[in-house]
Specification:
The chain is an alpha/beta fold and 341 residues long. The chain has a single domain (6-338), classed as TIM Barrel. It contains 16 helices and 9 strands. Helix 9 (146-155) crosses helix 11. The longest helix has 25 residues, at 173-197. 51% of the residues are buried.
């Protein structure tokens, strides 16, 4: 039994006595205890791939920030690695794929991963974390949306334009779909296994949704997210967060996802009109947390007013930035908890 089920009830679209709150990337560099642990290891991947340590980091923000949900500490790029495309996490630079997808032969060499065989360390971390939480708060599992995963697999690293990935959509759309189909099959099996391992809510991150024009987004991203949501329907509530894809709200509204995440440039009232009875999540500008305590409180209250009229999970409009003062994060969390607007 959950001691605090506010987040889970909101994720189901049920009434709650107050707005639940958590933050994307809450488990990580904003916390000194995370930096201390990370400093003893060889790198980011060792932390992700060691279930006991990933569990410890997952629970740190529950202890330090008193948030209403925990999200498993992992990375969306474990999926391409499980499929056979290894990545590195380069300090101060981000992810790097030494080999990238360039041809049909490259796609053919990829496997549809078995989550138990190739991603067992994430499933173990979920099991350990669910037991250690002992019902304090719900546990969120996640994966990247297929297009965002394709973008990294083709580009090889982060990019402002992902022009190589986008070129593939124009020049070889059939090959892009073949790759997306493999990623989708892997992602469905992975998320289903996360539920079996203890995840009580799932989130799909489409981090690079906003780089696509609407027609391409429908063809190369939304259709695959819809397939994932359909495969998970009835298991646990699913959240879709597609940064920058404001035009896709009607498509998300038609999917069997329960919650739609908003970035900080979206108008909650407009989204509510387009999304019907969906729960909305978000959407404070992460940079608002750089302000004074009074500014953070005022910005949080202004955000909460915008979500009046339907179920809401308070969060940022993207992940919390690593140089954010944890005290300001706590002001954000406390302000949400005190809100009775």
């Amino acid at each position: 039994m959950l001691k605090n089920d506010l987040f889970l009830r909101a994720a189901r679209g049920e009434a709650t006595e107050r707005t639940p709150v958590w933050l994307m990337r809450q488990a990580g560099r904003i916390l000194p205890q995370y930096r201390a642990l990370r400093g003893r290891l060889s790198g980011f991947k060792e932390l992700v791939e060691t279930p006991e340590l990933a569990s410890e980091v997952t629970i740190q923000p529950v202890d330090a920030l008193d948030v209403d949900a925990a999200i498993i500490f992992s990375d969306i790029l474990v999926v391409p690695e499980a499929m056979g495309l290894t990545y590195e996490m380069v300090e101060a630079r981000g992810p790097l794929f030494p080999e990238v997808i360039k041809s049909a032969a490259d796609v053919d060499r990829l496997r549809v991963a078995d989550p138990h065989e190739h991603l067992g360390y994430v499933l173990d971390a979920l099991r350990i974390t669910r037991k250690a939480l002992n019902g304090r708060v719900p546990l969120i599992g996640f994966a990247g949306a297929p297009f965002t995963i394709l973008a990294y697999m083709v580009e090889g690293h982060g990019s402002k334009t992902f022009s190589k990935a986008r070129r593939l959509l124009y020049q070889e759309p059939a090959l892009a779909h073949r790759l997306l189909e493999k990623i989708t099959a892997t992602t469905i099996a992975y998320l289903q296994a996360q539920v079996e391992a203890g995840a009580q809510v799932l989130q799909i991150f489409d981090s690079w949704a906003g780089i696509l024009p609407p027609a391409h987004y429908s063809e190369f991203s939304a259709r695959y997210i819809a397939q994932i949501c359909a495969a998970l329907d009835g298991l646990v509530p699913v959240t879709v967060f597609a940064k920058g894809a404001w035009w896709a709200i009607p498509e998300f509204a038609a999917m069997p996802c329960r919650t739609i995440g908003l970035d900080w440039n979206q108008d909650p009232q407009q989204v509510r009109r387009e999304a019907g009875n969906k729960t909305l999540q978000g959407n404070l500008d992460p940079c608002a947390l750089y302000g004074s305590r009074e500014q953070v409180k005022a910005a949080t209250q202004a955000m909460l007013r915008q979500f009046a009229g339907g179920p809401h999970i308070a969060n940022l409009g993207h992940g919390v930035y690593p140089d954010t003062n944890p005290d300001n994060v706590r002001v954000f969390v406390d302000t949400v908890k005190e809100w009775r607007g």
